[in-house]
Amino acid sequence: MDYINAFWVGGLICALTQILMEKTKLLPGRIMVLLVCSGAVLGAIGIYQPIIDYAGAGASVPLLGFGNTLWKGVKEAVDTQGLLGIFAGGFKASAAGICAALVFGYIASLIFEPKMKS
Q1: What percentage of the chain has pLDDT greater than the value 70?
Q2: Total structural domains within the chain
């Protein structure tokens, strides 16, 4: 049942994002920023963590989950380091995911021949 919950929640997030892309004139970069900020806000008011508990990777992998991860890192760092934690918390919480994306992207560029769009 965990896989089914992850599938339908992740699919719902992706479908809503696709509808947002199709029905508005927002550029993809702005939609990405909107998703990250929405995840942080939903995490801050306590709504997103129960969704992650229910759906697992279906909620933590999309950009909403990244925003929630940034929020949790900033909150934890502020609790331990004070005001300076605002600057360090997000980096510390998301460093492993960003590093993995860079490393795997580089490996993929070595395996395949990257080309510019024409």
Answers
A1: 98
A2: 1
